[in-house]
Design brief:
This protein has eight helices and twelve strands. The chain is α/β, with parallel strands linked by helices and 232 residues long.
Length: 232
């Protein structure tokens, strides 16, 4: 059975989320601080973390850094700040998705199910495509381990990072609009908010590129989107 961890100091909200998730036949544990959440992650295996940004002590950003130091588990970030800066900071720190409070519980549940489905699909290797390896000049993308190997080392990627990279690499040489990338990776209609895509590509470049400011693999096509270089 899939299991999620909810890290939020709002106990009533934790309980509400937990009740909604349990209805989907998913186990859910809750804790009220970042320190407790990091300790729980060291004790049990989880398929998703729901993480609040605004918490006393270790806030959500610091907690996220702690999680990403040891795990690629999907992270759904909750924030009360409806501004791009907070969203981008969270995505750059390693979040896979975000919701702004207050949110609809049905939407949260749908996002949880989507993130878990993608995470377990790539981990369990249910199809041939997920077990493939794409090879390029100085870059290997392994779908079975959901990792990349470059001159910078080997990195296991969180779900959104891997899916975006895989989609671009499979379409090597093609110019991909931000809308096309968003709809392929997030599996939902495109809403004009490019912070998700930009943050994930920034994270990928830091891991993959010897010179992130002069990318060899995922290149920006100004005013349109991105292209995985045809020359690698």
């Amino acid at each position: 059975m899939d299991r999620i961890l909810i890290i939020d100091d709002d106990r009533e909200l934790c309980a509400l989320i937990r009740r909604s998730i349990i209805k989907e036949n998913i186990e859910a544990d809750g804790c009220g601080s970042g320190r407790e959440g990091l300790a729980r992650l060291g004790e049990r295996e989880y398929h998703l973390v729901i993480l609040d940004v605004m918490m006393p002590g270790i806030d959500g950003f610091e907690t996220m850094e702690g999680i990403r130091a040891v795990s690629s588990v999907p992270i759904l970030m909750l924030t009360a700040k409806d501004d791009s800066a907070s969203k981008v900071r969270g995505l750059r720190a390693g979040a896979d998705d975000y919701l702004t409070k207050p949110f609809d519980m049905d939407e949260l549940t749908a996002r949880v199910l989507s993130l878990i489905r993608r995470y377990t699909r790539f981990n369990r290797g249910e199809g041939e495509e997920e077990k493939a390896v794409l090879e390029f000049d100085g870059l290997s993308i392994d779908a079975d381990s959901r990792s990349v190997t470059t001159g910078n080392g080997t990195f296991e990627l969180p779900p959104k990072e891997f899916e975006l990279l895989w989609f671009c690499a499979e379409n090597q040489g093609k110019i991909l609009t931000k809308q096309k990338i968003y709809e392929a990776v997030w599996k939902e209609p495109y809403v004009y908010d490019d912070s998700n895509i930009m943050a994930i590509i920034s994270r990928l470049r830091k891991k993959m590129e010897i010179q992130p400011g002069n990318p060899k693999y995922i290149q920006t096509v100004k005013g349109i989107g991105y292209r995985f270089s045809k020359d690698v």
